[in-house]
Design a protein that fits this description.
Layout: H1 3-16, H2 21-42, H3 48-53, H4 55-64, H5 66-82, H6 88-99, H7 101-158, H8 165-172, H9 179-189, H10 192-202, H11 207-213, H12 221-256
Helix pairs in contact: 1-7, 4-5, 5-6, 5-7, 6-7, 6-10, 7-8, 7-9, 7-10, 10-12
Length: 257
C-alpha cells in the first residue's frame, strides 16, 4: 500500500467522525426494525403449507400481470436475503415451481446477490469505520492481502456450506474489498445452489404435493444426480482454485527473482 493511499485510509474514518454516529444509529435501528417487521409479517407466510393454500390465487395473478408478479417476487426475495429472514429455501423452490427453471433461476440468482450486496453495504456503512479505526494496525496485513486475493478468498467462502451467507455478508462488509468485486464474485459463487433448488421446484406438479410429501416425495433420479453434483461441485472448484492460486504465486515468485 502506497503512502498516499495509506494516509487516505487513515483519514477516511475520522472524516465523518462523531457527526455521522447518530445517523448510523438511526440507520441501524431502521434496519433492525425492518428485520423484525419482516419476520413478523413473513415468518409464517413463507412456508410451503401457506403458499400451497394460495396456489390458485398465485397462478391467476401471474396470468393477469406476469411482469408485476415477477417484480414483486424479486423484491420479496431481495428483502428476505438482505435482512436474513427465514424462508429463502422455500422461496427458491417455490420460484422454480412458479416461474419455471430459467425464469426462476434468473430471479433467484440476481435477487439473492442483490440482497447479499445490500447486507454487505449495510455492514460497511454501519461498522467498517469503527472496526478499522480501532484495529487498523492489526488489520493492515489482512487488508493488504484481501485487496490482492479478495476474489479468490470470497469465491472459496461462497462454496463452503458451513459458512452462513448472512455472516459472510456482514463480515465482508468490514473489509476493503470493492463492492463491484463482491457483487460479481457472489453472483458466480452462489449460482450452483439456486439452480439445483429451482430445478427441484420446477419438477414439482404442485405446491400442495410438495407440502404433503416433502422433498423426499418428489425425488427423481435426475434430481438426486443434481444434488450429488451440487455436493461435489464445491470440492472440485476449490481444488481448481487452489491450483490456479499456486501457479500464480509461483509465477509471481519467479518474476520477482
Amino acid at each position: 500500500m502506497s503512502a498516499s493511499k495509506k494516509s487516505e485510509t487513515e483519514k477516511a474514518p475520522s472524516s465523518g467522525g462523531k457527526k455521522s454516529t447518530p445517523i448510523k444509529i438511526i440507520v441501524f435501528l431502521l434496519v433492525v426494525a425492518a428485520a423484525v417487521i419482516g419476520y413478523w409479517q413473513f415468518g409464517d407466510a413463507l412456508t410451503l403449507d401457506n403458499l400451497a393454500s394460495k396456489e390458485t390465487a398465485l397462478r391467476e395473478a401471474k396470468a393477469n400481470a406476469p411482469l408485476l408478479v415477477f417484480g414483486i417476487g424479486f423484491l420479496i426475495y431481495v428483502l428476505v436475503t438482505g435482512l436474513s429472514l427465514p424462508g429463502a429455501a422455500v422461496l427458491t423452490i417455490a420460484s422454480g415451481w412458479f416461474f419455471g427453471l430459467w425464469q426462476g433461476t434468473l430471479l433467484v440468482s440476481f435477487a439473492s446477490t442483490t440482497g447479499a450486496t445490500l447486507a454487505f453495504l449495510f455492514s460497511r456503512y454501519l461498522f467498517r469505520d469503527t472496526i478499522q479505526r480501532r484495529f487498523g494496525d492489526r488489520l493492515e496485513k489482512f487488508n493488504t492481502a484481501l485487496e490482492k486475493e479478495g476474489p479468490f478468498y470470497l469465491f472459496t467462502l461462497r462454496l463452503i456450506p458451513a459458512v452462513p451467507f448472512f455472516v459472510l455478508n456482514l463480515v465482508m462488509g468490514l473489509t476493503p474489498i470493492r463492492t463491484w468485486t463482491y457483487w460479481w464474485v457472489s453472483q458466480i459463487g452462489m449460482l450452483a445452489g439456486p439452480i439445483v433448488f429451482v430445478y427441484a421446484g420446477a419438477s414439482v406438479p404442485s405446491l400442495a404435493v410438495l407440502a404433503e410429501r416433502g422433498m423426499g416425495g418428489i425425488l427423481s433420479p435426475q434430481l438426486i444426480i443434481a444434488f450429488i453434483i451440487l455436493g461435489i461441485f464445491p470440492i472440485t472448484v476449490k481444488k481448481i482454485m487452489a491450483k490456479v492460486r499456486s501457479r500464480r504465486e509461483t509465477a509471481e515468485n519467479l518474476a520477482g527473482n
